[in-house]
Design goal:
By secondary structure, this protein is mainly α. It is built from five helices and no strands. Helix content is 79%, strand content 0%.
């Protein structure tokens, strides 16, 4: 689709984030399984459910835009998730708290990408007078910001534990 209007760009970017969310649904179960901290694992599981709901909200956004829900492969998310996959390869070799700290960092990179993406498309929808689409996108943006805050709170404890692996029972 040629980009001739801001609406064209909006549709393209919503398709991109739609792809990103679908990619995230495949990565989160692996992250939840790899996390050694129960709260972190639960946060990943919770975010998986939230991501599935966000895909449904995006379906509604597509309806408001008058286009068929369709993904445009998100290369940015592919790269962020590939970095996370590298971390998962350390499972069993890395100190558990250190791995958890890395998983949080990988997850927050994803959250920040989503926050930037949703903030942009929400603003464009608002500017184009697409009130309902704008509100749906704001709802998702708020959820992403809350998830990021939860990860930040978990990181405060886990990063302290990762800083001193010997105190956590490792050989350091």
């Amino acid at each position: 689709m040629p980009l001739k209007t801001l609406n064209d760009l909006l549709v393209q970017e919503v398709r991109d984030i739609y792809s990103a969310e679908k990619q995230i649904t495949k990565a989160l179960p692996k992250m939840a399984k790899a996390a050694t901290n129960e709260q972190l694992s639960a946060a990943f599981e919770e975010h998986l459910q939230q991501t599935k709901q966000q895909i449904e909200l995006l379906d509604q956004v597509f309806g408001e835009l008058g286009v068929t829900p369709r993904a445009k492969f998100c290369k940015g998310m592919e790269g962020l998730l590939a970095e996370g996959e590298e971390l998962l390869e350390e499972q069993g070799k890395a100190e558990p708290f250190v791995l958890d700290a890395g998983l949080i960092a990988a997850a927050q990179k994803v959250e920040h990408y989503e926050i930037a993406s949703y903030g942009t498309v929400r603003t464009w929808a608002e500017q184009l007078g697409l009130t309902k689409a704008s509100k749906l996108l704001q709802q998702i943006l708020d959820q992403e910001s809350q998830t990021n805050e939860k990860l930040t709170q978990l990181a405060q404890t886990i990063n302290q534990q990762a800083e001193q692996p010997q105190a956590a029972g490792g050989q350091g």
